[in-house]
Recover the amino acids of this structure.
């Protein structure tokens, strides 16, 4: 879902003045930003099942013009996708200068995200009587097969041999399980997958496709990302105001831009990335951070101006997008200063693997839930599900998922399209 971000630009050279050393070393703020986002995402997703907490610990209702911190987690994830996009494109073109190969990779990544999203979205709709297995068992097997296909195997000759076998087995398993899926609809009729909602991964896939289509052909023009960002914000504003109505009528597979809200957040990440990276080298904080702060202030002002159109994640209003962008930019600038300039990174030891192995970390909670459901273990669903005991349970669960992501990453298990 996100770029590898493990390439090293150059090694630090002794005796080189500080600014040059800084420009030549590796950026880690993106991984840490993404890891923090994953940690909060796991926490708030699990916390949604805990009752009796203050209203601001849940998503705001669609009919209320307000946003909570929970409503900002998904935008942070989208912003991280945008931060990574220029790096991913640059590295791919360095390995293979073919534009058609790059576009094919984008298509495969988008398709993979959509398929994973449909697996997660349809698990609870499965009919065990028609499939011969529960929806949880079906989803667990499908995700494990997908993991076999998506895992990054070693580069040795032996590893390459068995990786081909495992990838073929994984892809075959996913295809077979998708073919086996059945659900029951009104009137008792049998139906296949429900494509009405592609889940978060599918939404990310469609939005990534839309932004990539804009960014890749214009990537050499420094002014292009800001122009695209303004146009996408305008699309969101005009759609929310019902001046433009076609985005609401077109499915995402025909119009992946939606109403522009999610795409403008990803494009904001692209804009921010261009402030901190020039020609593959990092820009010193004294130059980059003022630009980033200025960008954040502009988005805050624009969001305030557009408040009459509403503030809502559910309705995907422009103010929700712009306020989330401002917070994302400021947090990334802070992390850039702390982690890449001051070199204070030890505090991030728990979250950094989650940021470097994002897709696996995203799927781990679902794999856990499907496993417990498949074996019929429901104790945790019916105990410690209210108040502070529920918060403690959720915090422990988040810690365990992050620790598991770190252990799996150190064991060379890494999922990537």
């Amino acid at each position: 879902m996100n770029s590898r971000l493990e390439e090293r630009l150059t090694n630090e050279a002794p005796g080189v003045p500080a600014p040059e050393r800084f420009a030549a070393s590796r950026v880690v703020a993106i991984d840490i930003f993404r890891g923090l986002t994953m940690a909060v995402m796991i926490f708030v997703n699990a916390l949604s099942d805990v009752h009796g907490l203050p209203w601001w610990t849940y998503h705001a209702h669609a009919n209320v013009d307000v946003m909570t911190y929970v409503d900002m987690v998904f935008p942070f994830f989208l912003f991280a996708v945008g931060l990574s996009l220029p790096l991913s494109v640059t590295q791919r073109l360095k390995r293979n200068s073919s534009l058609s190969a790059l576009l094919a990779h984008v298509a495969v990544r988008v398709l993979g995200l959509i398929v994973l999203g449909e697996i997660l979205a349809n698990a609870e709709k499965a009919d065990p009587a028609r499939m011969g297995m529960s929806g949880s068992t079906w989803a667990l097997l499908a995700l494990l097969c997908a993991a076999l296909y998506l895992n990054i195997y070693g580069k040795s000759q032996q590893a390459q041999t068995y990786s081909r076998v495992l990838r073929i087995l994984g892809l075959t398993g996913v295809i077979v399980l998708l073919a086996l899926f059945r659900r029951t609809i009104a009137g008792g009729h049998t139906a296949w997958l429900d494509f009405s909602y592609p889940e978060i991964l599918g939404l990310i896939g469609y939005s990534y496709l839309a932004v990539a289509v804009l960014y890749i052909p214009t990537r050499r023009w420094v002014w292009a990302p800001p122009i695209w960002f303004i146009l996408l914000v305008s699309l969101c504003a005009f759609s929310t105001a019902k001046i433009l109505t076609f985005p609401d009528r077109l499915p995402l597979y025909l119009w992946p831009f939606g109403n522009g809200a999610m795409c403008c957040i990803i494009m904001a990440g692209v804009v921010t990335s261009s402030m901190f990276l020039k020609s593959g080298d990092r820009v010193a904080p004294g130059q980059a951070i003022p630009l980033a702060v200025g960008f954040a202030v502009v988005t805050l002002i624009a969001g305030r101006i557009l408040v009459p159109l509403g503030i809502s994640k559910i309705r995907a209003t422009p103010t929700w997008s712009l306020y989330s962008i401002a917070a994302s930019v400021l947090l990334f600038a802070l992390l850039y200063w702390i982690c890449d300039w001051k070199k204070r990174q030890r505090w991030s030891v728990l979250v950094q693997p989650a940021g470097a192995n994002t897709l696996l970390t995203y799927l781990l909670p679902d794999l856990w839930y499907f496993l417990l459901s498949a074996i019929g273990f429901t104790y945790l669903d019916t105990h410690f599900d209210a108040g502070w005991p529920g918060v403690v349970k959720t915090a422990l669960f988040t810690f365990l998922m992050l620790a598991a992501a770190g252990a799996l990453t150190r064991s060379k298990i890494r999922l990537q399209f």
